[in-house]
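Structure, all two chains, one model.
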Amino acid sequence: MAQAQGFGRRYIKAFFKGFFVAVPVTVTFLDRVACIARVEGTSMQPSLNPGGRQASDVVLLNHWSIRNYEVQRGDIVSLVSPKNPEQKIIKRVIALEGDIIKTIGYKKRYVKVPHGHLWVEGDHHGHSFDSNAFGPVSLGLLHAHATHILWPPRRWQKLQPTVPPERKPLQNDQE
Amino acid sequence: MLRDVMRKTLRILGYSIQYGCIAHCAFEYLGGIVVCSGPSMEPTIQNSDVVFSENLSCHLYSIRKGDIVIAKSPNDPKSNICKRVIGLEGDKVYTSSPSDFIRHSSYVPKGHVWLEGDNLRNSTDSRCYGPVPYGLITGRICFKIWPLTEFGFLRASPNGHRFCDD
């Protein structure tokens, strides 16, 4: 009887020890290094979710590469939605701070992206709730950089940064 | 001998990863100690006061009007700002400074908050850069730790007239 009790206690102790290692390590890894997420909606067609409703892609979100808030034009990134903080949105970076961009249906025809901000757009113009609706977004809302499509297996690929040629910024500060 | 050293190094590495991760979780989700600098929140928080901030209410979306929050600066994500929430989404706020003769007011858009420092004359806040997205808020300041003479909860806003009650 006493032996059984000792065994039970040891078991519980080992369980808690493992628990306090595994949970913080997992949470930190998912917060800081990488996580996976399913893409919903049609706003990034044809890059993501080309099949429409029935097939949604799973992407790898890399947190580590944006720890210094460094993104390129053309990267696909996930952000906290400025209109609804409980929701994350996935869009393509079109312009960085200092660029002048021609907008599609925003209240101003040309916008200079302010300091510390990004201009993001979905690839599916007209079906995307993006910077053309809410304006430039603050870099602090940046959540992760989508680097790979993981699922479905036949769509496994690395996501390359590409800016549609007609959406190139008109002028940027470096030039 | 070499194996002993290896084993020791690995154990130290494992422990540092474990405690680093626990620290990350605590600072990210529970809260931490913050040193405030700058004059924008005087007289509630003086320059270089030490305060305790909790992050739970920010993750649970229970920030209320009148709370003092820490947020990432909208123009520079690497720096933090410490301001008071004057209006939540849908609230009416005065966008003009108090010395202006005509008061301009506007409504805070969805998903945003209106932040202002308590030191209205010396504060760069929503009156300058407009409403701030809720996603930039990282924590809420609950009490002051240093100086010890002022230990305890923070005072209510000295600028009650900045709140709109409708």
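Residues 36-167 of chain A form a domain with the Umud Fragment, subunit A fold (CATH 2.10.109.10).
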